[in-house]
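Re: beginner question about structure tokens

> Can someone show what the tokenized structure looks like for a real chain? I only ever see the sequence side.

Sure, here's an example I had lying around. Input first:
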Amino acid sequence: MNKPTAALILLLLIAMMQCGIAQTVPNSGVSGQAPTTITSAQAYPLPFASTGNTIELTVANAATSPLTGVKVTATEIPAWLKFTSTEQRIALLKAQQEMSATFTFSVDKTAPVQKNQMLKFVITAPSGEKWTKEITVAVAAPAKFEVYQNYPNPFNPSTAISYQLTANSTMSLKIYNLLGQEVASLVDGDRLAGYHQEMWDATRCASGVYIYQIIATDEHGTKQIAHRRMLLLK
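And the corresponding structure tokens:
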């Protein structure tokens, strides 16, 4: 099953964008104007750990002369957003014409969820004047509770245990031997929705098979339990 993706078509405040681009045309009678920043207060949802998402910015030339070499650049991108390209160019924008600059990106699983993040796009006209488009996005929580196989496995002496939570939860992550005896407690408290990774250092443990168990109870009282085996080889 394909994961959901986001397609954000930003046709926001086109009138202001038209005004801004029109002012960049030579001999328009406007010069030295400070850059304009246009902000979208609405938070656009992004699917958790998704690929193939797109943001489409529409640039309009309301002037009577064509524009060449308009540049749209994505800036101040958080590390968990991976853009295929951070710059798009519009080679020719005819008079009274609208054209789109489309950015494709993926959302890494390490992204903070349910937290607003500002993205900034800078439109640069041939004259060097700039206009900034800011939009707010928020990554949705994972749709599925999941506990991943530890890595590396087999391991010596430490390994990483990763999991994802669909909601803010109170949880425990404990390690047991095959006799059912608890040998380590890695987490006993609250964790936010999203992806997490814990490290276990088994320096003081003997070689053998161990079981790690996660019990998570979300803010609605829903309990999730999962466990996996791992192998320590010394």
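Each token stands for a local structural state, so reading them left to right follows the chain. The first strand starts at residue 7 and ends at 10.
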